[in-house]
Amino acid sequence: xxxxxxxxxxxxxxxxxxxxxxxxxxxxxxxxxxxxxxxxxxxxxxxxxxxxxxxxxxxxxxxxxxxxxxxxxxxxxxxxxxxxxxxxxxxxxxxxxxxxxxxxxxxxxxxxxxxxxxxxxxxxxxxxxxxxxxxxxxxxxx
Length: 142
Prior knowledge:
Elements: H1 10-20, H2 25-31, H3 36-43, H4 51-61, H5 65-69, H6 72-136
């Protein structure tokens, strides 16, 4: 069987998804409350899938029911918007983080300016004090 997944039916897609997750037919049967034989019949295509059973299988496998029914191109179209949403969410998160850091940086700059002015004022006061003290000093004669 050298066909691509696009040429396979839902039963084969279910089997491939199960194998990718390392589950046995017995595990799947237990998770779906089916006998192993009944589940095996689903994978062999002997049992027609109902929509509710397909949804149960998709939930167990962690995929959309459409991914088990459709070819790769259609599956990619379903997955791609989710990736775009995730990228959009991450971009928004990054934008908000940058904005928050910019506000924090502005706050730190203002605080640094405050302390610089305070320091400069103290230095100026000390210079004025030292000049005033020298002028009013009286000489003591020796």
